[in-house]
Amino acid sequence: MHTPLLILIAGPYRSGTGDDPELLAANLRRLEEAAWPIFRSGHLPMIGEWVALPVLRGAGGTSPADPVAEGIMYPTAERLLAHCDAVLRLPGESQGADQDVAIARQRGIPVYHRIEEIPGYAA
Description:
Helix content is 41%, strand content 11%. The protein is α/β, with parallel strands linked by helices and 123 residues long. Strands 2-1-3-4 form a four-stranded parallel β-sheet. β3 (86-89), α5 (95-106) and β4 (111-112) form a beta-alpha-beta unit. The radius of gyration is 14 Å and the shape is globular.
């Protein structure tokens, strides 16, 4: 047995979408596809947007393109990383995910690039 890890799933969310709601939703679904394998492997998956989007709505924002989002989206991920034990960096260009990886490395948090690298991975 291994100790369950809180693993931040980092990858493209806004990148390449032009803030189109359907493309944003598709990117979120791609991030969420990693949640079940992480959970099945005995860990707890986390996606920054799961926290940031409700906070954004509470602040009166309606999309990540709203001016208020700048003070919410990236700061949410940075705050989450204070609690996460690892990061899973999914493929694709993403300034935010690259920032998550940089913060994780500064803090000595492991960064995985494939789900199979996660301790206790269960196919």
